[in-house]
């Protein structure tokens, strides 16, 4: 450096010893006559690098920053009204980009469940507004309804895509969708949603129109249903207000006598009766015509 007339400023110099899980004594580096004590973590090009390369500090910092952005964006994304779904997904990409900054560098940190759950928790906060959903909807169901892959799978995809050609990127996306489908099949939450959307790829690639507050209630079965209110302890009975049947999402959309005329009109327009087993298929088919 001196041969090229370059010098270091000791007061601005930081040092770190990447030791992994090994325990080492404090290390000191001499820089132009001044001792620089190695620290536990440093920030380089926006990435928090820790001595043990656990990436907890970086992921926590990225999540905190993304949560601040989410709080700001939520002010313009009410559950009812507000931007349409495509706009909400665009706004969600801002949060996703914040979380995935420099993902190829720290993706190995997602082997730690704490880091992985930290990212998923932050992603969940934004997806609640993308879907206009109740807070009680499970994270796996939110991701499927919003057609947004889990953030940890997106981080792995971004790492694999680093320096890859277009063919490899297509393959990596296919692997992501396969991993997502396996996770969805094994999820403990979202049973009703999985009945409606068993195959993630078909829902995500299909043109099913815009989501809204009421459609999300049907897809999640978390909403203005007596069955749901009883389950969370807000009502003592799940009986419908207008008939003796249990007030579920299926009852409200497919059986409720008050909407018989609307169902008949819709059935005549699509050319077949509407029931729980074919609603999603009709949505995907009608929006491709």
Report on the structure:
Strand 3 (about 40-45) and strand 4 form a beta hairpin. The protein folds into three domains: about 1-40, no CATH class; about 55-190, no CATH class; about 225-285, no CATH class. The chain is elongated. Strands 1-2 form a two-stranded antiparallel sheet. It contains 14 helices and four strands. The protein is mostly helical. Helix content is about 50%, strand content about 5%.
Number of strands: 4
The biggest beta sheet is recorded as:
2 strands, antiparallel
Output the strand order for the largest sheet: 1-2
Which secondary-structure class do the elements indicate? mainly alpha
Count of helical regions: 14
Order of helices and strands: EEEEHHHHHHHHHHHHHH
Beta-strand share of residues? 5-15%
Coarse morphology = elongated
């Amino acid at each position: 450096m001196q041969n090229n007339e370059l010098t270091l400023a000791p007061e601005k110099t930081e040092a770190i010893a990447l030791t992994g899980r090994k325990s080492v004594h404090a290390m000191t580096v001499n820089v132009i006559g001044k001792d620089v004590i190695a620290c536990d973590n440093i920030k380089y090009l926006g990435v928090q690098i820790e001595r043990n390369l656990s990436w907890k500090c970086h992921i926590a910092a990225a999540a905190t920053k993304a949560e601040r952005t989410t709080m700001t964006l939520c002010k313009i994304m009410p559950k009812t009204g507000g931007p349409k779904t495509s706009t909400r997904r665009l706004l969600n990409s801002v949060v996703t980009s914040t979380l995935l900054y420099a993902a190829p560098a720290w993706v190995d940190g997602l082997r730690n469940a704490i880091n992985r759950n930290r990212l998923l928790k932050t992603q969940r906060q934004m997806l609640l507004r993308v879907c206009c959903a109740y807070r009680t909807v499970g994270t796996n169901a939110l991701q499927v309804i919003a057609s947004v892959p889990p953030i940890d799978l997106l981080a792995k995809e971004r790492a694999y895509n680093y320096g890859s050609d277009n063919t490899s990127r297509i393959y990596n996306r296919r692997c992501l969708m396969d991993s997502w489908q396996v996770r969805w099949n094994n999820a403990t939450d979202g049973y009703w949603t999985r009945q409606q959307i068993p195959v993630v790829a078909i829902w995500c690639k299909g043109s099913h129109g815009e989501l809204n507050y009421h459609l999300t209630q049907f897809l999640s079965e978390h909403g203005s249903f007596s069955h749901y209110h009883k389950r969370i302890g807000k009502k003592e009975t799940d009986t419908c207000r207008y008939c003796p049947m249990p007030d579920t999402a299926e009852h409200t959309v497919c059986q409720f006598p008050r909407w018989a005329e609307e169902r008949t009109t819709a059935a005549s327009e699509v050319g077949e009766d509407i029931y729980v087993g074919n609603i999603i298929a009709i949505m995907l088919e009608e929006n491709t015509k």
